[in-house]
Amino acid sequence: xxxxxxxxxxxxxxxxxxxxxxxxxxxxxxxxxxxxxxxxxxxxxxxxxxxxxxxxxxxxxxxxxxxxxxxxxxxxxxxxxxxxxxxxxxxxxxxxxxxxxxxxxxxxxxxxxxxxxxxxxxxxxxxxxxxxxxxxxxxxxxxxxxxxxxxxxxxxxxxxxxxxxxxxxxxxxxxxxxxxxxxxxxxxxxxxxxxxxxxxxxxxxxxxxxxxxxxxxxxxxxxxxxxxxxxxxxxxxxxxxxxxxxxxxxxxxxxxxxxxxxxxxxxxxxxxxxxxxxxxxxxxxxxxxxxxxxxxxxxxxxxxxxxxxxxxxxxxxxxxxxxxxxxxxxxxxxxxxxxxxxxxxxxxxxxxxxxxxxxxxxxxxxxxxxxxxxxxxxxxxxxxxxxxxxxxxxxxxxxxxxxxxxxxxxxxxxxxx
Length: 417
Known about the structure:
By secondary structure, this protein is of the alpha/beta class. The chain has helices at residues 8-20, 42-47, 65-77, 91-103, 105-113, 133-141, 183-191, 202-216, 220-226, 234-243, 249-256, 260-271, 283-295, 310-416, and strands at residues 26-32, 52-58, 81-84, 121-127, 159-163, 167-171. Among the domains are: 8-180, Rossmann fold, CATH 3.40.50.300; 201-295, no CATH class.
């Protein structure tokens, strides 16, 4: 089963955490004690690098106490301050306050060296959806500071809560990570209520849980669902009361061919009288019942992560975090290259604009020059023409006067003769 759930508000929440991490001195990371490894968001490692860290194993009252102790020691052996708590208990607040002072010891020492005394310790509370962040803060503060609910997505925005004069907490929405490479992690998250039911194949998830419990907690399901005042006939009596007939051999033969986990699911359906029309066990309703009981701790105290798998799962986390860092660096390089390209393109456009502008001005000057030259030539030509015409007119007039005098002289000579 491919379980993936990363709604849009988680992207917004992650961005908000990135923007606010500089405002805090340390991070309180809440994990579900039933899945203390599967519920550690690798994105929080990347976001909170360089900050003090306290890991709280919440809902410890629902988890297998022996495994919880093993996981707590596992974290401590790796230098991580870890403590198992029931967030509803008032004493959990004082315990966490003590761990916060330990995690923020270096910061407090730096403040004192600078002469800063009494500045409150600021912590970001982070974790997956429905892990109990708001319940923890309310218990810590002693009042209903934030909304709570047993479903993912109750807290949608950041909230600052001041506790006395020495602690300030920043509550943040629960976030998952975009893709679960290990599908067992997705299934475990679904079984503790960190993922919306609507996207789940409940029958497949319930069968996986049954197989797991039959292997790691044998007898737990039988004692929870199949016992009654008449243990041997509880399931058969339920079917007989509903259908008016006793189970026949064909029913048992048909179920013998099904996977063991699915057969147990049908037994639970009969025992709880979750039957369809005709007396057939309703596997869908039985699966929904089983998953809801697991979320709320009604099956019994159990853990779905196993200490022997810790090293392998931590290696997967480190690989995921390294891949995230590489993607972030690649995105930064790409953005820087795009910015440099835009800058060069803008510079080229400016150069071309200048080039286009200068020829225009030069062309205008050349045009005006050529027009002026042509105008000058025309003016000189017209002056020359007028001058030539005047000269020719004068010559013509002089020539005409001379001819008239010659004619008069000739007529006078003829008269004397």
